[in-house]
Design a protein that fits this description.
The protein is of the alpha/beta class and about 450 residues long. It is built from 21 helices and 13 strands. Strands 5, 6, 7, 8, 9, 10, 11, 12 and 13 form a nine-stranded mixed sheet that branches. Strands 2-3-1-4 form a four-stranded antiparallel sheet.
Length: about 450
Amino acid sequence: MSASPARIAAFDILLRVETQEAYAVELLHSEKVSRLSVADRNLAMQLVMGVLRWQSRLNSAIAEIATGKNSVSKLDPEVRIALRLAVFQLRFLERIPESAAVNESVELVKRARKRSAVPFVNAVLRKIARGAEPAIPPSLSTAEELAKWFSHPQWLVEGWVNQFGFEKTKVICEADQATPKTSLRLNVSADVAQGVIEELNAEGVEAESGALLTSALRVVSGDVTRTAAFRERRVAIQDEASQLVAALVGRGARILDCCAAPGGKTSAIALNNPEAEIIAVELYPQRAQMMQRFITAPNVQVIAADATDLPISGSFDRILADVPCSGTGTLARNPEIKWKLQQSDSDDLHKRQVAILNAALDKVGPNGRVVYSTCSLEERENVGVVDEALRGKTGFRILDCGSLLEELKTSGALIWHDIDALVDGPYLRTLQGVHPCDGFFAAVIEKYSNPSG
């Protein structure tokens, strides 16, 4: 007997995520996975994302059987992954036969050349009770209980409760554990958009209108990655909050995207500014090369450079500083982040973000605007960065994102009606679960030509 292709793929991906700086989403869209049958590919996706979302709950179930409080962390990673895979299937997937969940995980241990661990794995899995997890208990009332039930690091949940309150944090945690809808951006002009939608339908992809923007679609069913429109870059997978940040950049003659990879926002900006000179900067040369293949707009120049030391002369009308961040607004799509992230990472992230924003402020011209954004929920990466970067500076002001969103609504770009729900003070602030998109933050900073005015 050997493990199924889906479970082998899931095991290999989870092992790389556990032991390397790998990300599940990228591996799940690799050529190796694309060669699987549709059924195997879907199961591999379900297994990988489920194990990562519920990792601490799975560890607890294993630890209840295995001896020693820290026994799970002491196991070889191959054994740990095989156990998590089996327990996830036993506890969360009712349609998977118990024998398949147990026996194939044992085969995965053998395949990983950990035969000495086979009796241990067999014994643990035979003792773990089968059955779906119970409904959410009504007694959840503390950050500790939320973190335990929804499988999040407690320190992360405590920070959200302090910032957003208990009820919103509960909604955020619940959203992180569910499969988010796939949002698309139409990378074509409005006059041909309907034709692309009809083409998607003809290839088996059912899509509905976006919740925030007229340029967005939401996939109801089907695999958009196998369509001609996706291959030809006429549609792209991009969360609606990410699209909204790009829309806030507005129009200009010379535009800079400081941290541009993978290029979704750059492409959206280029579509709105077909006559502009657009420079997209990416730190890593390999990612810059990937961007060049991804972006079809002829007015975009991709440069591999450090955003804090740009080899570019002159000023810009519009600058997007979508900085590297913790990514805690995207945990439903990237659940491994919550297990890789440490509280101590905050200092390094904050310093890097402040440096990039300061560099952007130095490059913006009179009456120009800098959009600072993250896909993080953490206050220190958001308002904390803006406050520090602007401290002691003159000639800059924070624009009201509510007013800018009203302008987008008037123009027909924004279809969301409750603008007040999208802002926190002068800032854009979306929260997964609370809003129909990922968690994003944006501040729009203007350099005005008369500082004394």
